[in-house]
């Protein structure tokens, strides 16, 4: 009997089923340093324990995206091993910071199923929750993927498509307990621009770029225990290229966005995202952002900005789709998220 | 007077001599994270402090192979700087887990010497012991290497060839104190297969592959303070290639073996191993295992499996040697080890 | 209004001005492990907490050069973003070891200004001080760079050129509090050569070499939050090459110097340094040292050696400049520093 994991096929999912993903992971000082080594991450709240204390937190948490990568990585063997396409994200919320010594676990509930008309694939919707060693949720998000059927004769399940918010309402976002930006130090943070300085519709070119290396994306992707073959095995794709984990591009673009958004300190919501074009080693990733919305909170000194973060391989700024409604070839990522910013 | 280390030559070794290797090393959260970043390591006992506690340990230890690499790395300047061939390993036993904050030190006793008939080289056998800061042994193993003579006129020493076990008897293996698999969580560990599910002779194709990068093998090899020139200096070999540290291939193959052997949690014995062919960057390492033996223990829930772990550069499975008795060109590593597994 | 940092131009600096650089940084076990992974670092004081305790310190500090890189990295956005040349270093002193958990902050005082005769650029001298979370200085150094003017009409400032020591007098160096080499373990440190064994004028070829990889220098440079475009973006220079951060070469050469200078344990002074030729990936860095001076101290067992550390890309030893007084093309680095050594 085969001992290796064949992954799940479309007909293996049942609405309401909860999948407890394997291999919990303790994170700490090493993951924090590696995050700063792999991405040009400079947001002060994640760089300095002292700065974090000044914002009401006990110490610097693990970068929000690192927490996402760890939670996401665990789902790969159960959700996307036989996926043919990663279709979308929605309703991602960070619910509690992750600190050194925390152990993360992921579980996914199947919340939607829809077989495609070709009878060979179907779309699976899961809501994934990451929890810490005390059973407290640290984040949840919805993801949907197109998965192959193994048994083409398996009957199509009843169609269930979840209703998802295109944008998480600001009042549903969770600001970390204790956060307080009323004594925020703009000089140490690196930029003077506060919440009131950003206008809806404003576009920010983050200027800097990083050329992607095979060793770096593999080190990052392994660190999150995402072991999808396509990222590591140059013999897997016919063209001999290793496809770069989309999360590597997300983290790279977010880190680059420091230059212009140094005070967009914590990510609290992920409204959606598309990996517009595949990324390969040798490309130079640059990024720009657009302010999509703003909201106030009742937390001292804390405002919310909704940002579009676009990563490119051609340095273009401002445009994402062509007249045909398709992503331009130089666009790698189109992400829509909420962050907290000092008012 | 030259201040740099010329290494030892064959005539410099004496039977019974104990060499205390330099540069003790404190390991911690950084080494743990880097191990997960450099190898697709997913064994739950090393990934999650909570899982390790559920198995009776105080926290996740450093990966057994990382401990081996640290202990081994220290021996290089004294044992293999002038080696022309790494001939074998035997009787390797892990005696105590290594935890964050431990400081490792290595010492080697010369247990065998045999000059070759050409008078230019000889074989040196050492038993190396790694100890922690309390002087407790954490592992020991025998290694033999062929070393050059510097002074060809030096007399041949009396021939001493140690008798070594081809396989460590199961009763000589040390199960870490406190280990208890009676409440082992197979779901969190990632696979349902227990000790009773594996049959002697069974072959497992671990399916996944990783293409080797220069930066990755150098980062790994340096981390263990193994500074043999041939791994780092592209001008050293006539072909301009950097030879990859054999231990990098061992760790890569062991990590890949998670897929099918997720419950072979801890390595407790190294019966032998051969680096069948040299490994260079650009090759894609895959792995397969064969169950060679099984044994029971008196520790709650803990069984032993003896595994052959084979790493390949061509994805082949099942064959290691040709009709001529030589290793096939696609075989990189042929390792024989004991691991603990929940019954 | 542009939100990104345009950097400072020559006319933006004022004598006596103190610039508090952004993004303090907490360092720890991860940075320590990464330093050992990126450089062949083996000095025992930084490798083993036990060895450091034996020398009177509470535990292994962060490598002196890592502390320098962190302090230096913070200055880049304010000092060298519009620099056209990095002209020199002087009077660098390590004032206090940096331990895991420390948070570093940098500030620079403008101590010199001199507009060039072309009216387009000028030289800026700053004295940078790194402090920990208790406000204690951990190091300071002078650096001068040539910076572009943005407004060519801006009036030239009064010329102020600081008087700098070509060599820091030994009595001005700070030996870490508590350091005591009277029970120094030469065997564990890796070499028997003590302070008395080195002669002024002695040249040591460190023999080993490391071929530079893009992924490695970028990982290192990012870790210190040095985000100068030229190190990361292959589209930035017309030749498509990424210029390697000079500090990467410094750390590589210093780590290589273990072989022959294993007991030059801590760096306490930086007299000066020149990045003689640019370094690019693919080059193989080797190093040699010359003993420039020696001094005694009143600290038990501790002597001082002044060393010239030269990194090369061609393996040459002993010569740095040609008859024309210019650096030879194979010289990458010419550094002059003070280190402590057991007497």
TrEMBL record, chains A, B, C:
The lineage of its organism: Bacteria, Pseudomonadati, Pseudomonadota, Alphaproteobacteria, Rhodobacterales. It comes from Pseudooceanicola nanhaiensis. Gene3D superfamilies: Hotdog Thioesterase. One of its GO terms (molecular function) is lyase activity. Signal peptide: none annotated. Pfam families: MC_hydratase (PF19315). InterPro entries: HotDog_dom_sf, MC_hydratase, MCH/BMMD, Thiol_ester_hydratase_Rv0216. This is Mesaconyl-CoA hydratase. CDD domains: FkbR2.
